[in-house]
Amino acid sequence: MSIINNANPGSSVEALYAVDRVITKFSQNDKNKGKYLPLDTLMSLVAPNSLFTGTERLENGDFKRLNPENKVKEAIEFWGKTELWELKSQGVRSKFLLDNTRELPKRLLKSIARKDFDILKGNGIEPFLRFVIFFLCVDEVTFVGLKPLDRQKAGELVASLINSDAVVNAMSLNTNERHIFFAYAHMMGFLEQVGKKQYFVDPTRAIKVFLPQVFENSNELFFDGFLNKLNHCLPVFDEGKYRELVEQQMILDTTHWPAEKGVKLSASLSIAIERLTQERIITCSLASDSAIRYSLTLPNGQEKMISTIQFLGGKS
C-alpha cells in the first residue's frame, strides 16, 4: 500500500529515522562487526509512544497516538525490502559500515533508484513518485513561477490537472496523505521550504546525489547525454521514461510547462542546474558544434542556452 497514506506500511518518517539511527549505531560499533541486530532487540529499543502521532483527534483535542510497535515493525519490513539495510531472518544491519542517519535522505533516494517500478499500476512507492513527477512538471510552483506549494495548492493542482483514471489507484492526494508526501519529498531533496508549510519544487539536492554516478566515466558531457544518464539513475526528470508516462497519460492540461521538448527545460530542472552552477559543483557552456541546445527557464524571464555540462566535483 502507498507510503504516503498514514495507515500503510512505510508511511512513518519518524519511525524510519528512529529505526535507522539504532541500526547504524549498532553496525558502527566494532564489537558488532559482522553481526546482525536481532529484530526483537531492535523493536524493544525503538518504541517511544511520543514519536508516532496520527491525524485523528481525541475528544480532548489531542492527536491520537498510533501503535508504535506496528509503525516500527512496518518501517523495518518495508524499507528493509528496498535494501536500505541488510534484512535477514537473524536480524538487520547497515549495508555499508559508513552508513549514518545524517545521510539517510541520500541513502533512501539511492535505494529507491535501484528499483524498477510499474509507475501507473504500483501502489507502494509509486504514488509518491507519481506526485513528485507531477509537481516537477509544473513551472508555477518553482522559484520561477513564485507560487509556493502548500497542502491546499497541492490538492487543487492534482484535482484540476490529473486524470485519475489513468492509474489503477486514484490520484487524489487526500488530506491525510499530503503531510507525508511533503515530508518525504522535502527529505529526499525534491522540495525546498520557503515558509511555514510552504515549498518550492526544486530537485537540486536530489540531483546532486546522482552526479558522481552520472559523471563516473567522464567529467564532461553533452547535455542530452547528461540528461540520459541522470534519468538512467532515476527517470523522473525531463525526458525520463517515468516522466513521459505521467505527462502523456496522467496530466489533463500540459500548458503549465514548456511544450518544446528537447529544447526548453522545465523550470524545476533549470533551477537545479543553475543552483548547481552557482555552487560550483558543475559548469555549463554553449559549444559551437552542439547539435542540440537546451534553454534554461530561469526567474525574471531570464533564459540561458547550454549544450555541455562539466562536473567540478563536490560532495553529493
TrEMBL record:
Record InterPro entries: DpdG-like
Domain of life from the UniProt record: Bacteria
Protein name, per record: Protein DpdG
